[in-house]
Design a protein that fits this description.
Belongs to the NAD-dependent glycerol-3-phosphate dehydrogenase family. The active site is at residue 272. It is a single chain. By secondary structure, the chain is an alpha/beta fold. It has 2 domains: 3-260, Rossmann fold (3-Layer(aba) Sandwich); 264-411, Orthogonal Bundle (N-(1-d-carboxylethyl)-l-norvaline Dehydrogenase, domain 2). Helix content is 42%, strand content 16%. It has helices at 19-34, 74-81, 103-107, 122-129, 156-164, 177-181, 242-249, 262-284, 288-310, 317-322, 324-336, 338-349, 353-360, 368-381, 389-399, 407-411; strands spanning 3-4, 7-8, 10-15, 39-46, 51-52, 72-73, 97-100, 112-115, 138-141, 146-149, 152-155, 167-172, 186-191, 212-214, 229-231, 254-259. It has an 8-stranded mixed β-sheet with strand order 7-4-3-8-9-12-13-16, with helices on both faces. Strands 1-2 form a two-stranded antiparallel ribbon. It has a two-stranded antiparallel ribbon with strand order 5-6. Strand 10 and strand 11 (152-155) form a beta hairpin. Helix 4 (122-129) runs parallel beside helix 5 and helix 14 (368-381) packs across helix 15 (389-399). It is globular, with a radius of gyration of 21 Å. The chain binds 1,4-dihydronicotinamide adenine dinucleotide and 1,3-dihydroxyacetonephosphate (13P).
Length: 415
């Protein structure tokens, strides 16, 4: 743990190294370098290790080299050529991004953990980290998805926070990773709302112990989420105020707006992926922009209804309408996102979207398909499938129960 006089600095780990994970590591690494009094210079990036052959079209391909056409460890490649040739090709990473294939080692001594894994891998990876993270670490979840189990539905930030017993906020927005990696302007929303003891205010009087407070969970549906305890950030660290969190993420090309609505930010990111599939289906049928706008409109209404129905205590409708993580993310995802593109291709080629994902994404993962299944299983358990006709239609199309051509009649309100 590095110190600055009496002050510790924050050490940052990015848990994940896919298309968005690698982009996030790049921009955070640029910011820690510019804020040396707040953050340690090295950003750890956990890499789910795999063997990768440098593609022939890569600028790093050298036909004469010993390793040409030979598989090499992805983490080794990232640390030597400073590029993730598989998940973020042609983008140079700052040398202070250090790829680490050992997830436990990657989070050692880190006070800021940025989770950017496909949502299906979050529970298993977090389970490996139980008891291994700093007790006062704070997390930001950049993953888009929900965690549905027998007990109900949880935000991914809750799934992380509950498992690791730490506070977890959320980052989500209209953020196609490849554009941000190329430093093209975009906006994002960060929801970060830990108890006040993380600011430089004294520990609130009457708290259970001097260093522990209740972690307020936004979710109504998983009661256990409210029982987690949160350890205060020691005063030797710079406060993790909105201002300092913003310093970690905001770039001239990546504009951050800080809010407190973790549920709204998380649900926007998760549910827009289902809407993007619907947009891809109608586009694949050649129905044009009006049809796409129609499913987007209905999808946005269902997103808002979902928040109000299941996260009423915490979610703010204005988060969906005013922030990047809501309508803006629906728009960008329905124009150029992977879920949209793969759904469209599936219709055009007459293949399943699962086949298209395998063939076209080179290991990248769709989130809309599993989210459609998870949301459907939760809605079924609540007897509320009919209240969310677009989400239900997408699930039934994936299951082969209905055809994409039926979308207009399926989402038409019943008179
Ligand atoms: N790519 C994008 O434009 C954006 C993605 N996101 C979200 O970020 C999250 C992560 O997505 P990406 O970084 O794009 O990933 P990706 O889809 O590009 O890559 C998949 C990742 O999963 C890893 N992986 C494969 N099997 C694994 C396992 N068993 N355990 C752990 N990891 C495994 C791969 O190594 C790879 O890093 C998703 O929830 C996505 O919705 C959010 C905003 C933008
Ligand atoms: O979340 C995204 C854009 O904000 C990326 O969406 P896809 O996963 O569909 O590419």
């Amino acid at each position: 743990m590095a110190t600055l006089g009496a002050q510790h600095k924050h050490k940052v780990t990015v848990v994940g190294s896919g298309n968005w994970g690698t982009t996030m590591s790049k921009l955070v690494a640029e910011n820690v370098k510019e804020n040396p009094t707040l953050f340690e210079e090295t950003v750890q990036m956990w890499v789910y290790e795999e063997d990768v052959v440098i593609p022939k079209e890569s600028r790093h391909y050298d036909a004469g080299s010993e390793t040409a056409n030979k598989p090499q460890k992805l983490s080794h490649l990232i640390n030597t050529i400073h590029e993730n040739v598989k998940y973020l090709p042609n983008i140079t990473l700052p040398p202070n991004v250090v790829a680490n294939p050992d997830v436990v080692d990657s989070v050692k001594d880190s006070t800021i953990l940025i989770f950017v894994l496909p949502h299906q891998f979050i529970p298993r990876v977090c389970d490996q980290l139980i008891g291994k993270t700093m007790p006062w670490a704070r997390a930001i979840c950049c993953t888009k998805g929900v965690d549905v189990g027998e007990k109900g539905i949880r935000l991914m930030s809750e799934a992380i926070g509950m498992r690791l017993n730490i506070y977890c906020g959320a980052l989500s927005g209209a953020n196609i990773a490849s554009e941000i990696a190329q430093e093209k302007y975009s906006e994002t929303t960060i929801a970060y709302d830990p108890p006040p003891m993380d600011s430089r205010n004294p520990t609130p009087k009457g708290s259970p112990t001097s260093s522990q407070v209740d972690l307020i969970s936004p979710s109504k549906t998983v009661p256990s989420a409210r029982s987690a305890r949160l350890k205060a950030l020691p005063s030797e660290y710079p406060p993790l105020s909105h201002e300092n969190v913003r310093k970690l993420f905001h770039r001239p090309y990546f504009h951050v707006r800080m809010v407190s609505d973790v549920a709204g930010v998380s649900l926007g990111g998760a549910l827009k992926n289902i809407i993007a599939l619907a947009a891809g289906f109608v586009d694949g049928l050649g129905w044009g922009d009006n049809a796409k706008a129609a499913v987007m409109r209905v999808g946005i209404l269902e997103m808002v209804r979902f928040g109000k129905a299941f996260f009423a205590d915490s979610v703010k409708t204005s988060t969906f309408t005013e922030e990047s993580c809501g309508v803006a993310d629906v728009v960008t995802s329905c124009m150029g996102g992977r879920n949209f593109r793969c759904a469209k291709m599936a219709i055009e080629r007459g293949e399943t979207i699962f086949e298209i994902e395998q063939k076209e994404l080179n290991g990248q993962k769709l989130q809309g398909t599993s989210t459609a299944y998870e949301v459907n299983s939760f809605l079924k358990s609540q007897g509320m499938e009919k209240d969310f006709p677009l989400f239900t239609a997408v699930y039934n199309i994936l299951e082969g129960n209905v055809k994409p051509e039926q979308i207009p009649e399926l989402i038409e309100p019943k008179q």
